[in-house]
Amino acid sequence: MKTLPDLTNPIAAALDRVIKVFDDELRSDLPFVNDLVEQVRRYRGKLLRPRLLLLSARATGDLRHEHTVLAAVVEMVHMATLVHDDVLDEADVRRRTPTVNRMVGNEGAVMLGDFLISHAYHLCSSLQSSRASRRIAAVTNTVCEGELMQIANRGNAALSEHEYLEIIRRKTAALTGVCCELGAWASEARPDIVDHMAAFGTDLGIAFQIVDDLLDLTASENELGKTVGRDADLGKWTLPAIRFRDSAGPGDRARLLAAMSQPGDDRAARLRDTLSGTESLEYAMATARSYVQSALSHLAILPASDAKDGLVAAAEFIVTRRH
Amino acid sequence: MKTLPDLTNPIAAALDRVIKVFDDELRSDLPFVNDLVEQVRRYRGKLLRPRLLLLSARATGDLRHEHTVLAAVVEMVHMATLVHDDVLDEADVRRRTPTVNRMVGNEGAVMLGDFLISHAYHLCSSLQSSRASRRIAAVTNTVCEGELMQIANRGNAALSEHEYLEIIRRKTAALTGVCCELGAWASEARPDIVDHMAAFGTDLGIAFQIVDDLLDLTASENELGKTVGRDADLGKWTLPAIRFRDSAGPGDRARLLAAMSQPGDDRAARLRDTLSGTESLEYAMATARSYVQSALSHLAILPASDAKDGLVAAAEFIVTRRH
Questions:
Q1: Which of A141, A195, A267 is nearest to B125 (CA)?
Q2: Is B248 on the interface with A (CB under 8 A)?
Q3: CA distances for A127 relative to A88, B125, B129, B138, B289, angstroms
Q4: Residue B201 reports pLDDT greater than 90
Q5: What is the pLDDT of residues B302-321, one digit of tens each?
Q6: Residue A287 is part of a domain; what is its CATH number?
Q7: Which helix (H) or strand (E) holds A78?
Q8: Is B222 exposed, middle or buried (0-12, 13-18, 19+ CB in 10 A)?
Q9: Which of B23, B188, B37, B80 is closest to A121 using CA atoms?
C-alpha cells in the first residue's frame, strides 16, 4: 500500500500553488485576524480534500488555474467546518494544537469559522462561471443539514444504521464527493465520468467518517492528536454502538443502553469497555471497507495514470490509517 | 416624517416576491430543519436591508428579477449574523421571541447560522454573473472582521471613537452599503451613481448602529423587544461611554471606569446610572444624525421619485426610531 506522501507526485507543484492561493486569500489588514488565521493554519493536516480534487483533475484531464482555486476553496470550507465542529463538540485538542475555541472562546471560534467560509465563497466567486459556486454552496447546505441532523439525534438510542449513514453522507461525504466531481468537471471531463468521480468521492467520504468515528472510540488521544471519546460523551451514536445494540443479546443491550444513557465524561470509557473485543468494531471497519470497494469500482472508467494510482492509494489509506 | 410602512409603496409587490424567494430557498427535506427555519423567520423584522436594496433599485432604474434575488440574499446574510450574534452575546430574547441559542443550544444556533449563510450564497450564485456573489462575499469578509475586531476589544477601556466607528463600519455598515450599491448596480445605473448609493448605504448603516447601541443603553427590554444592556454586560465600549470617558472630569471618569471594569450582570445598570442625564447620550445621537445628513447628501444625484422619497424616509426613520 502506498502512504499518503506518495500520492503527491503527480500534483506536488499544484499543491504548493493551492497553499499560496489559500494564504493570499485569508490575509487581512487587521493583525489579530492574521494571528487567528495563523492558529487555524496549524489545523491544516493531510490536505485530503485538495489532493482528491487535484488527483481527480489529473486523472481526467489537465490541471488548470480553476483547479488550484477550487482546491483552496474546499480546504477553506473544510477548515471552517472543523472550527465550528470544535465549538459544537467542545473539543480541547485538534491536530495536537489547542482548538480555536479553547484559545479565543466560542465567540471567536464562531466568527473565525464564518470568516473562513466567507473567504471560501469569495475565492470561489473569482471564477468566471458561477457553476462551481453554485455546487459548493449546495454542498455546504447539505453539510449544515447533516450537522443539524446529528445534533437533533444526540442521545437518540433508536438511531438506525441507515440514519447514521445518511448523517455522515451529508456532513462528510457531500464535500469529498464535490471535490472529485469539480476536479473532473473543471477538466471538462465527459458528464458520465464526472458522475463516477462524484460517486467515488462520496463513497470515500462515507468510509472516511466511519473510520473517523471508530478511531474516536478505539484510539488514544496521543495516537490521534485530537480529543477522543467526544462522540460518546456527547451522546452521539456511531456505527459500532448501533451494531452492538442491534446484534447483542438482551443483557448486553441493556448494559450498552445504560452506558450510553448516563451522562458524564466517562461515557466514552464505559462504551469502550462494553464494545471491547466484540465484533461490532470489526463490523464497522468491514462496512468502511465495503464503501472503499464501491468507491474503487467507480474508477474503472478511467485510463491508467499516476493520478489514478494516487486516487486508489488515497482510498486504501482511509481504511488503514491510524490517525 | 414618514413611518417605515409608508416606504413600501413603490416596492410593495417586489417585497412580497422577496419573501417568497426567501422561503423557497430555505425549504429542506428534513422536518426539524424546517422547524428551526420557522423559528428564525420570526426574527424577520423590518426587512430594512431588502427595502434599501429595492428602493435603491427603483430610485436608479427599473426593478428586475436580480433585485428580488439579491434582496432575499442580503436578508439571509443579515439573519445569519443575528443568529451568530446571539450566540456571541448570549442573548435570550430577540424580537420578543426566545433566541435560537436559547431554544436549541449554541450548537444548533451555530449550525443554523451556517445554514442561512450557505443558502444566501447558494441563492446568489443562481444569478448569471458572479459579480454580485463576489461583492456579497467581500462584504461578509468585512462583517466577520468587524465582529472579530469587536471581540478583540471587549473590555478595552482605551477603545477610541475612531476605532469604535471602524468596528461598526465593518460589522454593520458594509452590508447596508452593499444593499444600496447592488440595488443600483443591478439597475445598470452609471458607476458614479452606484458609488453614491454605496456611500449612502454605508453612512446609513453607521447611523443605524450608533442608535442601536444607544437604545441598548437607554431603552427597556419591553420597548425594544430584545435583551438590553448586553453591550455593557459584555464589556463592549460604545459611543456614549467613550464620549463620557473622553470628556468627563477625573472623578466622573474614574466612576465610569469602575462601572465598566466590574464584571457582572448589573454592569449595564451601573453604566446607565453613570451616563443618565449627561450630554454623552445626546452626543451619540448627534453623531448618528450627522451620518444621516451625510447619507442624504449622496442622494442629491438622483432625480425626484417615490423611491427616492422612500430612501429619505428610511434615513430619517433611523434616528427617530424607538426600537
A1: A141
A2: no
A3: 32, 12, 10, 14, 41
A4: yes
A5: 999 999 999 999 999 999 88
A6: 1.10.600.10
A7: helix A65-89
A8: exposed
A9: B80
User: CA A160, CA A242: separation in Å to the nearest integer?
Assistant: 7
Backbone angles phi, psi at B136, to 5 degrees: -60, -45
Residue, of A6 and B20, whose pLDDT is higher: B20
Say if CB A72 and CB A18 are below 8 A apart.
Answer: yes
pTM exceeds 0.95:
no
Nearest Cα to Cα of residue A267 among A298, A223, A233:
A233
Within-domain flag for B323: no
CB A4 within 8 Å of CB A315: no
Q: Compute CA distances A217 → A224, A238, A269, whole Å.
A: 11, 9, 9
A148/B110 CB distance under 8 A: no
In DSSP notation, B61-122 reads S---HHHHHHHHHHHHHHHHHHHHHHHHHT-SEETTEE-HHHHHHHHHHHHHHHHHHHHHHH
Q: Measure A178 CA to nearest chain B CA, in Å.
A: 15
Q: Which residues of A touch B137 (CB under 8 A)?
A: 118-119, 121-122, 124-125
Residue B117 lies in a domain: yes
Q: What is the mean pLDDT of residues B134-140?
A: 97
All cell numbers assigned to A120:
471560501
8 A C-beta contact, residue A164 and residue A146: no
Dist. CA B220–CA B237, nearest whole Å = 19
Q: Which of residues 37-96 of A touch B (CB under 8 A)?
A: 84, 87-88
Three-state secondary-structure class, residue B2: coil
Closest residue of chain B to A87, computed from CA coordinates: B107
Cβ within 8 Å, pair B84-A117: no
Domain that holds residue B219: 4-318
pLDDT digits (tens, 9 = 90+) for B114-135: 999 999 999 999 998 899 999 9
Number of domains observed in the structure of chain B: 1
B310 assigned to some structural domain: yes
Contacting A residues, span 152-211, partner chain B, CB-CB under 8 Å: 152
How many Cβ atoms from other residues are within 10 Å of residue B53's Cβ? 33
Grid coordinates of A48: 485530503
Residue B191, domain member (yes or no): yes
Determine the angle formed by the axes of helices B65-89 and A100-124, rounding to 10 degrees.
170
Contact A305, A59 (CB under 8 A): yes
Task: List all residues 6 or more positions away from A304 whose beta carbon is below 8 Å from its beta carbon.
Answer: none
Mean of the per-residue pLDDT values for chain B?
89
